[in-house]
């Protein structure tokens, strides 16, 4: 997995006073506020876990968060942008969110922590790198997040959201979502 090429948020910590809202401390606090926003469609992961929060910078006193949608038709993109803006404002920052569409987001940007959270939530994380021809156009081996069996079958190309497919485990008989490689 390769990390997001623009994921440059500085992770700071704690409460940031107005006197400290300069430099790295301010940017770190802004990153932390934005990074904690949960994805509205998959609430077990944050926008940082998914890698869609690209960066947070302080520009002329304004926290500017750059966000990349998972795909161009994602119905949650406006909700995510508004939630990031609200989180920054609640943390005491003037805020602006910018949508960045290039380079396009890929499931390779999901952090290892995000993949683990998906699995614990019952969603099979993407199995292969998005640049794999097999991942994009072939059958992908998906292990069951409930029992770990590799004896699974795709039921539908689309699951609870367009970015997930519906699978069924033939071993434990449980249905589950698989976060598709993009």
UniProtKB/TrEMBL annotation:
Gene3D superfamilies associated with the record: Fe-S cluster assembly (FSCA)
Positions of region (Disordered): 1-30
Stored InterPro entries: Fe-S_Maturation_MIP18 (IPR052339), FSCA_dom_sf (IPR034904), MIP18-like (IPR002744), PaaD-like (IPR011883), Zn_ribbon_PaaD (IPR056572)
Domain PaaD zinc beta ribbon: 132-180
Superkingdom as given in the UniProt entry: Bacteria
Domain MIP18 family-like: 35-92
Classification via SUPFAM superfamilies: Fe-S cluster assembly (FSCA) domain-like
Record-linked PANTHER family: 1,2-PHENYLACETYL-COA EPOXIDASE, SUBUNIT D-RELATED (PTHR42831:SF3), FE-S PROTEIN MATURATION AUXILIARY FACTOR YITW (PTHR42831)
Name of the protein: Phenylacetate-CoA oxygenase subunit PaaJ
């Amino acid at each position: 997995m390769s990390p997001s090429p623009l994921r440059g948020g500085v992770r700071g910590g704690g409460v940031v006073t107005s006197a400290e809202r300069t430099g790295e401390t301010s940017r770190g606090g802004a990153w932390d506020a934005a990074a904690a926003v949960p994805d509205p469609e998959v609430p077990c992961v944050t926008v940082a876990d998914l890698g869609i929060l690209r960066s947070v910078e302080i520009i002329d006193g304004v926290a500017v968060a750059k966000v990349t949608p998972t795909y161009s038709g994602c119905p949650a993109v406006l909700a995510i942008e508004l939630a990031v803006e609200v989180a920054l404002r609640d943390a005491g920052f003037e805020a602006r969110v910018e949508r960045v569409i290039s380079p396009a987001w890929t499931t390779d940007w999901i952090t290892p922590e995000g993949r683990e959270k998906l699995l614990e939530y019952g969603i099979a994380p993407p199995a292969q790198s998005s640049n794999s021809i097999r991942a994009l156009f072939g059958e992908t081996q998906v292990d069951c997040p409930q029992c770990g069996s590799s004896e699974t079958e795709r039921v539908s190309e689309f699951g609870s959201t367009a970015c997930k497919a519906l699978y069924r485990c033939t071993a434990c008989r449980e249905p589950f979502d698989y976060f598709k490689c993009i």
